[in-house]
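Ops channel
N.P.: pipeline sanity check, posting one input/output pair.
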């Protein structure tokens, strides 16, 4: 223990033994260095894990998770988590989870559909901020979560299937904002699927006064999946979702899609695609792909795009099947003034660049 009351974890110390030995509310200071094959099951409520610069938890691809079990009033900060074979962090219940300045590298199992850097089930009040995700099978997979949820100012590179997927999440103050996502080169994690949807909102509901907010994110580049998008809203149903201020540069087959749901708004976004990829399709769309769930009151307004469809060299900026009462108005299609430089105009560029 140091003079501040923090418990010091040196390389070679057992994180699990420390967790079990000390009381709830303990602050653990993880020393700089590589802490091999460490795992913490069921961290005690109120515990905080803070890494010094250079503090690394390395599972050596032999340990399944770095942290797992239940998470109640848990903070993890400033640690690099790498080479874990199933998930970096996997909590199945709890509330008040904070991940700050955590780096996830070369972590996750399978195709990224159910395993990744952060796997959360039945958690209320989540904050994930200022963290980095590189070569993981998926970024943040959160199922049956309850707001508030804040995912902001994160950086993701070659993140496998999704950077964020909210699955059956609901409540007030759900925000995904100021995140920066890129596809660089061909190096992915193991058997990870290439990026499908950078941000996916599936069967999730905000409220009329407080919609799920997907705001000021940016994505650049795509993999080889011919169905993916930058942002997918209303997938499987859901309601009260808003995407605004997002910027995509060749981000996938679709820029922003509304695949179903009710009261879904896409406003003041900017999309550019012109890299000659044969599967590039459309900048924005509204359609009912989520039957038998209700589909109504879609809005696509005040957006800008320059989007070339596949190898046909023709503009493809918006499409709708007219089944969800779409309001499409006051957009600027095509906008010949925009190009790849819009990447640097994003609000997310302020801190991530």
């Amino acid at each position: 223990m140091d003079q501040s009351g923090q418990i010091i974890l040196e390389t070679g110390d057992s994180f699990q033994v420390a967790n079990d030995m000390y009381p709830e509310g303990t602050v653990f200071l993880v020393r700089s260095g590589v802490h091999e094959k460490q795992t913490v099951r069921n961290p005690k409520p109120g515990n905080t894990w803070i890494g010094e610069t250079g503090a690394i938890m390395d599972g050596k691809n032999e340990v399944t998770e770095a942290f797992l079990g239940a998470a109640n009033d848990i903070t993890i900060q400033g640690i690099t988590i790498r080479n874990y074979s199933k998930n970096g962090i996997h909590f199945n219940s709890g509330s008040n989870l904070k991940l700050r300045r955590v780096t996830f590298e070369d972590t996750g199992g399978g195709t990224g559909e159910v395993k990744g850097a952060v796997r959360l089930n039945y958690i209320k009040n989540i904050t994930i901020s200022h963290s980095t995700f590189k070569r993981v099978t998926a970024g943040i997979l959160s199922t049956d979560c309850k707001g508030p949820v804040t995912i902001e100012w994160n950086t993701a590179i070659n993140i496998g299937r999704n950077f964020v997927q909210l699955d059956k999440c609901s409540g007030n103050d759900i925000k995904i904002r100021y995140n920066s996502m890129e596809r660089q080169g061909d190096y992915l994690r193991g058997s990870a699927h290439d990026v499908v949807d950078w941000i996916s909102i599936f069967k999730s509901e905000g409220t009329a006064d407080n919609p799920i907010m997907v705001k000021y994110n940016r994505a650049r580049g795509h993999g080889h999946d011919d169905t993916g998008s930058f942002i997918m809203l209303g997938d499987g149903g859901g309601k009260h979702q808003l995407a605004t201020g997002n910027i995509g540069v060749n981000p996938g087959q679709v820029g922003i899609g509304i695949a179903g749901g009710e009261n879904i708004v896409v406003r003041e976004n900017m999309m550019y695609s012109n890299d000659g990829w044969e599967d590039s399709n459309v900048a924005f769309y509204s359609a009912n792909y989520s039957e038998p769930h209700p589909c109504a009151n879609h809005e696509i307004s005040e957006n800008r795009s320059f989007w070339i469809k596949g190898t046909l060299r023709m503009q493809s900026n918006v499409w709708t099947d007219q089944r969800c009462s779409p309001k499409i108005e006051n957009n600027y299609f095509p906008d010949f003034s925009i190009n790849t430089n819009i990447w640097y105009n994003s609000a997310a560029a302020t801190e991530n660049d």
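N.P.: looks fine end to end. The chain has a mean pLDDT of 95.
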